[in-house]
Design goal:
Elements: H1 2-29, H2 34-40, H3 45-51
Helix pairs in contact: 2-3
Length: 57
């Protein structure tokens, strides 16, 4: 029973993290300052930049 509870919590954390990533990407696309987004989601700017689409030249 404890394994089931643990697994459910783990799955919820993964789901929450995916939702946060989607929110961060939307904010980036809207042109919101990276430092502000990183502060709100309590992550580093480097982690946030990893979510940004790479610019090709």
């Amino acid at each position: 029973m404890q394994r089931g509870i643990h697994r459910g919590r783990q799955e919820q954390r993964i789901k929450d993290e995916r939702q946060n990533i989607k929110r961060m990407k939307k904010l980036l696309a809207a042109g919101i300052d990276k430092a502000t987004i990183a502060n709100v989601f309590e992550c580093s700017v480097a982690e946030l930049e990893a979510l940004s689409p790479k610019q090709t030249r």
